[in-house]
Amino acid sequence: MKALSILCLSAALLAAPATFALSPAGEQDLAQLQTRWAEINYQLPEAQRAAAFEKLAGQADAALQREPQAAELHVWRGIILSTWAGAKGGLGALGLAKDAKASLEQSLELDPQALDGSAYTSLATLYAQVPGWPIGFGDDDKAGAVFRQALAINPGGLDPNYFYAGYLMDHNRYAEARDALQRALAAPDRPGRAIADAGRRAEAQRLLEQANAKLK
C-alpha cells in the first residue's frame, strides 16, 4: 500500500506544472506593464491606443526574454495583444488575437493559478469575441466553459465577473449578467491597480444599467 501511495504521489508531482517565482526585476516589469496598460486603455485617446499597445507589446516581449518561464508575464503579453487587437480592429487584428491566445495558453501550461486565474478570463473573452470558423477560433461553448474555470478560481473577482457578464448579455441572460456585475462591483480593490479598477468599475456600472433596462 505504501509503495502504491508513493507511486501515486510521484505521478501527481510529474503531472503538476512547474511554477517559477518572479524575480524582483520581473515583479517590476509586471507592475509597469499593468500600469501602462491601464493608462493606455482608460486615459489615452482612442485614436492613439493601437500604437501605444504595439509599443507596450514590445516591452512585454523584452520582459519575457528575461524571464521566459514567468506565467504572469505570459498572461500580460496575452492581455496586451488582445487589447491591441481590439484597438486595431478589422481582419488584421486576427493575427494578434491568435498570438494572444498562444501566450495565454502558455501561461496556463506554466501555472493556471497565476494572477488568480487571469489567463482563463482573457482566453474565455477571446473565444467569445473572435469570429468563429472558418475565419477565426471563436467558440461560444468554449467561452462559457473557460469562464466557469476562471470563476472557480476567482469567484468574486472584478474582471472575471465583468467579462462573464458581457458574455451573458450577448446571450440574453440578463438576470445572470446583473448578478455577475453586482459581484464585480463588490470586488475588493487590487493593490497597485487603481486606474484599472476605476475604469473597470465604470464599465461594469454602465453594463449593469443596460442589464437592468433589459429586465424592466
Task: Please tell me the total number of domains.
Answer: 2
Q: What's the order of the H and E elements?
A: HHHHHHHHHH
Q: What's the shape? A: globular
- Profile the largest sheet: none
Mean pLDDT: 91
**Rg from C-alpha positions?**
18 Å
Number of helices: 10
Secondary-structure-based class equals mainly alpha
What's the CATH topology label of the largest domain? Serine Threonine Protein Phosphatase 5, Tetratricopeptide repeat
Helix content: over 70%
What keywords describe this structure?
single chain; 216 residues; Serine Threonine Protein Phosphatase 5, Tetratricopeptide repeat; 2 domains; 10 helices
Short description:
The protein is globular, with a radius of gyration of 18 Å. The N terminus is likely disordered. It has 216 residues and is mostly helical.
Kindly describe this structure.
The chain has 216 residues and is mainly α. It has two domains: 24-143, Alpha Horseshoe (Serine Threonine Protein Phosphatase 5, Tetratricopeptide repeat); 155-216. It is built from ten helices and no strands. Helix 6 (114-129) runs parallel beside helix 8. The protein is globular, with a radius of gyration of 18 Å. The termini are far apart. Mean pLDDT is 91; it is low at 1-17.
Layout of helices and strands, plus pairs?
Blueprint (H helix, E strand, L loop, with lengths): L1 H14 L8 H20 L2 H21 L4 H18 L4 H18 L3 H16 L10 H14 L4 H13 L3 H12 L8 H22 L1
Helix pairs in contact: 2-3, 2-4, 3-4, 4-5, 4-6, 5-6, 6-7, 6-8, 7-8, 8-9, 8-10, 9-10
